[in-house]
Task: structure prediction
Amino acid sequence: LTLFTEKGRLALVTVWNEREKTGQNPGWGSCSLGVFICLACSGIHRNIPAISKVKSLSLSHWEDHEVQFMAGNGNELMRRKYEAAVPVYYYKPNHKDGQTLREQWIRAKYERKEFSEPGKSFIYEEGTKDGMLMKKGRDNVQFLSRRFVLSEREGTLKYFTKFDAKEPKAVIKVDTINATFQPEKIGNPNGLQITYLKDYSTRNIFIYHDNGKEIVDWFNTIRAVQLHYLKVAFPGASDAELVPKLTRNFLKEGYMEKTGPRHTEGFKKRWFTLDQRRLMYFKDPLDAFAKGEVFLGNRDHGYSASPGLPAGTHCNGAWQHGITIETPDRGFLFTCESENEQKDWLKHFNEVISAVMSPQEYTSKKPNV
Result:
């Protein structure tokens, strides 16, 4: 291909900036759909050649009619066409989300045209979903096929060890469920982590399905059932108020070292998950239950997070970048592998501690352990 002329490249960038008013250069475009796309999504579009023909804004040759087509369409116009009827519960992925979520969003819009016609019924709203998913064992690393049944009428997600089993292994209330994609942690691009409260402790379930569409369908059906439940529980609330209460991504995850309550025990490496105001720690990232949890309340109630460790702390671990969290109950000491990790954890801790607590967060508070 001959190099795209600078004049033509600038014409496309001008079209982008006039249409989207972001001042950013997306780098790529689909000359068949008339949308500008980022590098990450360009690969997904390229894998669906039947609907999307991808070109680089700076390296590809663009015909005049292609430039005119982009000028006549653009992201906002195509968004109004292909996202005309996206249900409020449907999760719209962003650049931070994994390949599976982004690919199924792109396929749902442009290939299946799920959201182009207002009034169309969605498979996510059928009230039940029943199918087989691969689930990790509670006390081992083996994934086995298990039957899952989601019921809007009962407000539950159940799973069974066998397809024809009469009694479920677990019955999970939808109002306690969180679901978040965890491809790297689970080791599968379609890996989904489900967490729920069991006897006031957080229980983790790790699942996947070989088909990306199937696991994303489960994810959005869970969100649809949750929204239905919330509308019954809070009849006066708007969609804008309820949607943030659906599934959420964790604020941060990663390894730190921690010592015990006397601060004289050895520092041990643990996997940490910050989920809203709850900092949970695990021996292994795929553990079913946390070894302990730290509740992070508001700064005005005696909570704080600061760099460093108290003078005289014997730091026997491999990591030296300390963090001290103070709560009304006790102090917690952690160390991070690098200064950057220390700063990132502190940023998240202090954002949580600075935020005003909701009534639900007051009632969900439990003693730190």
In short: The first strand starts at residue 28 and ends at 30. The radius of gyration is 24 Å.
